[in-house]
Every structure is written in C-alpha cells, then in structure tokens.
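Objective 1b. Sequence-to-structure analysis of Alpha/beta hydrolase fold protein.
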Amino acid sequence: MPFRLKLTLIVFGLLALSVAVLPLILPIPELDTVPARQLAGDEGAFVTVDGLEVFYEEAGSGGTPLLLLHGFGASTFSWREVLAPLGAERRTVAFDRPAFGLTERPAVPPGATGLENPYTPEAQVALTVGLLDALGLERAVLVGNSSGGTLALQVALAHPERVAGLVLVGAAVYEGGGAPAWVRPLLHTPQMNRLGPLIMRQFGEGPGLEFLRRSYADPERVTEEVIAGYRRPLRADGWDVALWELTKASRTPDLAPRLGEVRVPTLVVSGAADAIVPPEQSQRLAQEIPGAELALLEGCGHLPQEECPEAFVAAVTAWLEGGSQ
C-alpha cells in the first residue's frame, strides 16, 4: 500500500475514532439548578395531569374560558401582559408546556414513544386535554403562539369537541417543527445523547438571546427584566436534558393538508413585522382554515402578546365579542 494512502487512512481512522469516542468521555459541567417548585413563588399553582406536575396561572372567571399555549423556549411569562386583561371577562389560564417553564421535567424511559414520552406531540396533545379535565373545563378557546399554535391546531383536529375556538398567533404550521427525517436517527446515538443537553445550554446564552430579540419588531424592548423572565426557568433541575428530549421527539407537523378539516371559529393573529413566522404564512393560514379571520398588528413582531399587548387584547376581545365565542 502506498505510504500516502496508508497515512491518509490512518488519519481518517483517528478522526472517526475521535468523533465516536470523545463525546462519550468529554466532561460535562454540572449546572447549579434547583427544583422547579422553588422558583414558583406565589404566582401560580401546580396541578397533576397524567402523573405530571403542571404549572399554571389564571385570572378571571365565567364565560367560555381561554387556554393560553406559549411557544418554544417560552413559559407563562410570555402571557404576563395579557393574562389579567383577557381575564376581565372570562376565565383565562396559561400553563407551562412540558420541557418549559416550571412544569415537571421527567426522565424519559429507554425506548419510550408516543404517549409514554411526555415530550412527543401526541403526549402534548393528551396533556392539554388532560389539563382541561383537571381544571374542570369542558371546552375552551385555545390561544397558541408559534409552536403553541401548532399544538392548538393538533388538539382541535384530534378533539374538536373540547375546543370552542382557536386564536393562532404567529402559528408555526408550514415550516419548522423538528429536525429533518434523515437527521433524527443521529439524535438518538449515545454520542448525541451525551452532547445534546450541552448543546441545549446554548439556548440560555447568546443564540437564545438573539432569537428572543429577533422575535420583537423593536429589539430595544427586550429589556433586562424580559431576559431575566425568560432565563428563570433555566434554573430548574433538568431543563437542559428535557429540552434535548423535546428536540429528539419533535417532528415537522403535517398540518397543512388538514386545515380544511378545522370546524371551530378561528382568529389568525400576526405581527406585521414578524421575522420568525412571516405574515404571509399567517395570511395563507387564514385563507386555508374555513371561515377564519385575520388580524394583522402593525409594529409587532412574533410575540405581539408581549410587545403590543393592548393591540393584541383589543383584537382578541373584538373577535370574541363579535360572536365567535
């Protein structure tokens, strides 16, 4: 064998060995975290749903209730500006979805799939319905932002009898929602299972902060107080592992072909300056859901409930009072 070829094979062999072995022996620093309950204070409460401790906050009473579903990386904190105003006329509940906020982050049993894994789309649909049961809500208007809008649609399609209406806020329907199919097997390798939580920790640093700023039309509105509110759940035990489990369990939703099946009153809300889910996608969504209405909020980004709360509440309230629910 020529020396150059032999040397090349040795080099590539060593590289392959490094890729296979180094992730398994790389030291992973411990995080300084605490149980989620220690972070809750007096702001909300916990309720057990399907064996999972779910954190929620609520305001108001009476009327057809609203259930608020936050997007990726957020929590009930995302609804802080609108929870009380929306609760002025009806019971309004915001909760932390599995892998986010202060909701319990259980370990995933080896080989668990579907409802056995609380981070799968199927389990998140089941938990949302289970939360309605636990709180004594027969039906509710689901208000979902970004991936929370995706989940709201999935619940409406799977359990239309439990959904009185939909408010889809910058809903991620046509793009995103998980790793490409060809990548998913790699996410379950021992190497990635060890490195994955370490990668997720970057969400609390520069990349996560940059994504949050891009979610606002005016990044200057992302104050230190807002940053602190988003980072607080990142002090909860196991947040990095849970976020990795959610990433592994996620997949691109195949909702577009089923939009014609939605049979509940629907309001689609979009920030006119949304850089995450472009307004054109929300306009398309409103056209493809039968009878849906569209509210385009000027000067707002991907999180209008945070950045433009008055305009957001006005749009949702007007739709509700217009007879939708």
